[in-house]
Fold this protein.
Amino acid sequence: MQPRRAQQPITIRSDKAAARLAVLTRDGRSQAEVIEEALDRVPDPVASSDDLAARIARIDAILAQIDPSSIMSMAEFDSEMYDEHGLPR
Amino acid sequence: MTPATLVVDTSAIMAVLKREDRWFQLRATILEQPCIFPAPMLVELWVVARRSQLRSPALVSSFIAEMVDPVRVVAFDAAHADAAALAAEAYGTGNGMGGMLNLFDLMIYGFAKVAGLPILCTGHDFASTDAAIHPASRVG
């Protein structure tokens, strides 16, 4: 997600939507609050099983090119990176 | 956005990358459940990958891009810091009481506590605390 300062402002092009936004902000809420609340109510698009299968296939293709023994274990990493107080060495 | 149901620890993603025991289950959970990916976890993931003897570090970049949904990466904030700092006394390594969480683990613990969600992880560290552990985790 982009940092807030890098986000583009949005323009409400529909007169009907703009009027509706004006009504919904009469209670003191900002336009952004109303829009965020509306977005929260929209369900996420459900990833299709094809999407998931394709993603798994891409991951499998990546993993097939990586020798697992070349990756350090978390135990090795922790003992190398953190001291006896749990702080970075 | 669908509310998250778990917090992912670095160890879970590394277990997939290393194809450790039960990596299929860990991968399925990460891909199919709405997760919180703590931003500091991405840092640790990169550091582990870079310190490993990889022929092509770019592959790890592709792997992370497939595994981590950027929309669900959550920044570390003041509430997380408070929860992590509180946990340091009880569960921090070097607390004199057998605490097992290093500085990074404490941050993950903070994410889980603030969100009220279980941690997907491998190993005993989080299981030795009062944090909830996701059932797909590999403890031990």
